From TrEMBL:
Luciferase-like domain boundaries: 10-307
UniProt-recorded name of the protein: Luciferase-like monooxygenase
GO molecular function: oxidoreductase activity, acting on paired donors, with incorporation or reduction of molecular oxygen
Native species: Pedobacter africanus
Record InterPro entries: Bact_Lucif_Oxidored (IPR050766), CmoO-like (IPR019949), Luciferase-like_dom (IPR011251), Luciferase-like_sf (IPR036661)
Length: 335
């Protein structure tokens, strides 16, 4: 059966972007405001991601920010997209998310990633002697599941709070590696196609072909994260998206800056190489008016058959960002 947008759950990935002229405190205030609006507009879940040593991303203490957003909302699911598990001991994450689930029952998601969420020097500062912890990612996911299980109550090491709580675990991926793990464990799979689209189709094929039903999930479930910049006209959306282009130009060149205001002509800013590299990373980006976004997202859904779409939006003005998510909600709610 063909999947249609109006039958597809839609969600938010908030990268807690710090914009030029503002501070992380402003970011957290705007994130809470966006989450409240997103809840009103019918978004399914609201995720934040762990990053470190990036001046434009304020969600390094991810569990703390999740608590802030959960406290500002009432019904929407709030979670991590994701926690970079090799940066932490599974016990600490079990306790943190057990605390969040105890405070906000039935609303917390735990998405887990294998990458460090930063550069190698910072990863060393975070992990120390555990620098190669990514190699233990599958075993650490199993440890985390054990800490959440009621059967762990006889263990010498217990997660309090956390033990016996039903906290959905997701496996995140930006390549094919985690697709095998998500399939083997029978867990939902979220792919970072908003910045790493190259192996997206291959990864979700691997996941679906190898999926083993579990107590957590009977059939494969794929969430795709994409960039969406919507506005009342195509022209305005194409202007707003230049903030995203500038952000990725900084990633390509290694010259990262706070999120910059939109410009009228990107050709005055980047060269051909920078544009080509950024465009490859941003292949899953949808820009335009409601009609344009609707057509292109339906085509994406037809091609991928994903079960849920999650949108992230690097937009300079908070009011324009709110409007973009409002338009996107209208796209999903209309036949």
């Amino acid at each position: 059966m063909k999947k249609l947008l109006h039958n597809t759950p839609f969600s938010v990935l908030d990268l807690a972007t710090v914009i030029e002229g503002k501070t992380p405190a402003d970011t957290f205030k705007n994130s809470a405001d966006l989450a409240q609006h997103a809840e009103k507009w019918g978004y399914n879940r609201y995720w934040l991601a762990e990053h470190h040593n990036m001046i434009s991303v304020a969600s390094s203490a991810t569990a703390v920010v999740i608590g802030h957003i959960a406290a500002a909302t009432k019904t929407m699911r709030i979670g991590s997209g994701g926690i970079m598990l090799p940066n932490h001991s599974p016990l600490i994450i079990a306790e943190q998310f057990g605390t969040l689930e105890s405070l906000f029952p039935g609303r917390i998601d735990l998405g887990l990633g294998r990458a460090p969420g930063t550069d190698q020097v910072t990863a060393m500062a975070i992990r120390g002697e555990r620098f190669s912890a990514a190699n233990n990612f599958p075993q650490d996911v199993l440890k985390l599941q054990a800490y959440f299980s009621a059967e762990n109550n006889n263990s010498s090491v217990r997660a309090i709070p956390g033990e016996g709580l039903d906290i959905p675990i997701w496996i995140l991926g930006s390549s094919t590696d985690s697709a095998h793990l998500a399939a083997a464990l029978g867990l939902p799979y979220a792919f970072a196609s908003h910045f790493a689209p190259a192996q997206f189709m291959t990864a979700i094929h691997i996941y679906r072909q190898n999926f083993k039903p579990s107590d957590h999930l009977k059939e494969p479930y794929v969430l795709a994260c994409v960039n969406v910049v919507a506005a009342d006209t195509d022209a305005e959306a194409n202007r707003l998206v230049t903030s995203l282009y500038q952000l990725f130009m900084g990633i390509v060149t290694g010259r990262r800056r706070l999120l910059q205001p939109p410009v009228d002509n990107m050709n005055e800013i980047w060269d051909v190489y920078e544009e080509e590299q950024a465009s490859q990373m941003l292949a899953c980006t949808f820009v335009g008016s409601k009609a344009t976004i609707k057509q292109e997202l339906q085509q994406f859904l037809d091609k991928t058959g994903v079960d849920e779409l999650m949108a992230t939006a690097h937009i300079f003005e908070h009011s324009a960002r709110l409007r973009s998510y409002e338009i996107l909600a209208e796209v999903f709610k209309t036949d």
